[in-house]
Write a structure and sequence with these properties.
By secondary structure, the protein is α+β, with helices and mostly antiparallel strands. The protein has helices spanning 12-32, 38-48, 112-125, and strands at residues 3-4, 51-56, 60-67, 70-77, 83-87, 95-101, 104-110, 131-133. It has a single domain (3-133), classed as PH-domain like (Roll). The protein is built from 3 helices and 8 strands. It is elongated and about 60 Å long.
Amino acid sequence: MEYYGILPERKPWVKIAVILLSMYAIWDTYTNGNWFYLPFGMILILATFSSRKQVVSDIGVDIVYTVLGQHFHNMWEWDVILAVHTDKLKSAPNVEMHFNKGVINRRFILSKNDTRDVIELIGSVRPEISVTEVNHNKR
């Protein structure tokens, strides 16, 4: 079973602003011969039309980037994940799940039902991972 993270959509005005900025960078490259800005303009256009999905499955935790119809995976398998923390307050009514691989952390926002199912999945795939709640109490 696969569970998908909740990601905010890009606002249309942000997409338009980025496209205008990248078109200006490309135009400036063409008119002034300043080739330094050409890669930035091209990368900004590609980034505007890219998308991202967060997937939790029995294989591991994956972030799938889609650029021009091509899928790029950034997968963490369960054997490299050392700890999982949940945070029910920060993204209420949804739940944040923090997957830790050493000092690197991935934050997924999941619904409460999906969080419960993911915790059960973690228990069945790799029971030595303890899932703990983030403590917000200041001392």
